Amino acid sequence: MEDGERRTIRFHEYGEIYSRHGLYEQLFYDRLKCQSPRKVAEILHATLEKSDGNHSELRVLDLGCGNGMSGEAVAEHGVARLVGVDIVPAARDAAFRDRPGLYDNYYVVDLGDLDDDERAELEAWSFDCLLTVAALGFGDIPARVLAQGFELAGDRAWIAFNIKESFLDPSDDSGFSRMVRELVFSDYMQLHHMERYRHRLAIDGKPLYYYAVVARKTGRAMPDGLA
User: Fold this and answer.
1) What is the pLDDT of residues 159-176, one digit of tens each?
2) How far does the chain reach from its first CA to its final CA, in angstroms?
3) Are 186 and 159 a contacting pair, CB within 8 Å?
4) Which strands form 189-201's sheet, in the order they lie side by side?
5) pLDDT at 131
6) Distance between CA atoms of 190 and 158, rounded to whole angstroms?
7) pLDDT value for 226
8) Confidence at residue 138, expressed as pLDDT on a 0 to 100 scale
């Protein structure tokens, strides 16, 4: 109910959800118990500690960052720079409204269609960590955009993301699934941690399982056909 009228907002109409203060958190985190931002942030931090990495020196590109929940979880461990990218203007507005000062900059752009100035500005941040949480698959971040995110991260950058378990199943022959499997299990990245966990509940109350992944780019070229 809104202003005395009943409104219907579909589950993934993010612009409509973000424009209403607290609705995203209430829906996905309070009711559906999403724990992915904290899970991915925790395993990234733990992996860096085991690898003698310095979390506080990370220059993070938060791809598909929405209203900043994942960026906030990573920033709690300290980062040098945190830059958000999303294609939905209402997401940026929500991040500025709900988490002012969190991001050093926030770009509303399509990484798959950057102009020269946009690319140069993003490259100038010298990212050494790519973060993307609850945004892969389902058309939210197309394969070409994910590939560009990988390319914007430096040659030895850390990669932290989560993905629905079915996307790593060899029986899934979709282009996105094949791309993710090839990236994760190729010599383009060194896999440091992969953990199956409950991402959140579905609308019917059943658990949805994802994999949380932390890897590091090896400096090798991206596999042919993915760049």
Assistant:
1) 999 988 877 777 766 666
2) 46
3) no
4) 105-108, 81-86, 59-63, 129-132, 158-164, 207-217, 189-201
5) 97
6) 9
7) 60
8) 56
Q: How far is CA 115 from CA 126, 174, 210, in A?
A: 18, 29, 34
Q: Are 87 and 14 in contact (CB under 8 A)?
A: no
Q: What is the spatial distance between Cα 201 and Cα 205, in angstroms, rounded to a whole number?
A: 5
Give the model's pLDDT for residue 137: 58
Question: How many CB atoms are closer than 10 A to CB 113?
Answer: 11
Q: If we measure between CA atoms, which residue out of 95, 100, 88, 31 comes closest to residue 68?
A: 95
Instruction: Specify the length of the chain in residues.
Output: 227
**CA gap 73, 128 in Å, rounded:** 17
Tell me the backbone φ, ψ of residue 217, rounded to 5 degrees: -65, 140
Q: With a cut of 70, list the residues of the chain below it in pLDDT.
A: 137-140, 172-176, 224-227
Q: Where are the alpha helices (DSSP H) in the chain?
A: 14-18, 23-24, 36-50, 69-75, 89-98, 116-123, 143-152, 175-184
Q: Which tokens in the block code for residue 6?
A: 């009943």
The Cα 63–Cα 83 span in angstroms is: 9
Residue-by-residue DSSP string for 153-219: S-TT-EEEEEEEGGGG-TT---HHHHHHHHHHTSTTEEEEEEEEEEEEE-TTS-EEEEEEEEEEE-S
